[in-house]
Amino acid sequence: MHFYILWSKIAVSEKNHIRKVEKMFTDKPESYRGVYSLLLTPFKEDKSIDYDVYAQYVEWQVERGSHHLFSVCGSSEMTKLTPEERVKCATIAAKYSGDTEVIATANLEPAWHMQVEEVKRMEQTGVDGLVFVSKGYADNDERLVGYLSELAEYTTLPIILYEFPGMQPCNISGKAYGELVKTGRFHGIKDTTCTMAGIKDKIAVQGDSAVLQANIPLLFDAYMAGARGVCATPTSCGANLFRKMYDEFFVEKNIAKARETFNEIILLDNAIDSGFNASAKYLVGLQGVPMTTATRCGSTLSEARRRSLEAYYEYAKEHGMLK
């Protein structure tokens, strides 16, 4: 409870005195579409969080054209962070995001009463929306819909759903997703089924919400099928490519050009696949943010992997893919 009071005061201070730019999340359904860039958590070599670098990294992500930022996510190693660390990361992300919306996961705690408090605390950080994971209840539509709907009563913020693979079973059925969308509280979902059948099941019932693709090889096909955005691991280190593809596909309607950029995204995805998320941290570092490759999840980089990433970065920079 002491932590809750402390962080509530900090969050209110941040919200009232630092941040006030008009945000994009509105009653218009299209405001929930676009590129959701995942935020890595930078650690010092002793595995404590480097909050100064985190603030710099948030600003760097904004500069790369992200529509939205996702703090406290799988790529953030969120299950390896304490509740206090998660709240502080969300608070800093909200503070340094300018007019870019920030969302953050708010239901990781094990017990119901702890999740309710977690939701309340996260709402006070200044983020623009909350993310609810499916919590391992996705194999029972009735239980899942009831659980998420009841938890939603404890916040006034818009909610995005996340099929977090770290809590199985995680993949929500189209039927359950459709019921949740109809409540008017749930505005999107990060689909991690990694199948076209799975994402199409949700697209068919998405209504005004935004189904977001997390699987890179199927990203172009998902856009063609009706997905309205992306929320995937390589956005943590190459968001500019995702914004470029999004604009080409949805704004310029230049499908051929979007397909070319998609091929560049595939190269990025393959470059960081082995050793993620240390690999993404190293690539961010090559682009100018002083982030170490330290992780709490255990991923590391060998000398050979570092050289491979350096070679990719040199190629990507030479061809205008990365800066």
How would you describe this structure to a colleague?
Helices cover 47% and strands 11% of the residues. It is α/β, with parallel strands linked by helices and 323 residues long. Strands 1-2-3-4-5-6-7-8 form an eight-stranded parallel barrel, surrounded by seven helices. The model is unreliable at 1-22 (pLDDT under 50).
Features:
323 residues, alpha/beta, 8-stranded parallel β-barrel, globular, disordered N terminus
Quick description:
The protein is of the alpha/beta class and 323 residues long. It has twelve helices and eight strands.
Indicate the topology:
Elements: H1 2-17, E1 34-38, H2 51-63, E2 68-71, H3 83-96, E3 101-105, H4 112-123, E4 129-133, H5 141-152, E5 159-162, H6 174-182, E6 186-191, H7 196-203, E7 210-213, H8 219-225, E8 229-230, H9 235-251, H10 255-273, H11 278-286, H12 303-318
Parallel strand pairs: 1-2, 1-8, 2-3, 3-4, 4-5, 5-6, 6-7, 7-8
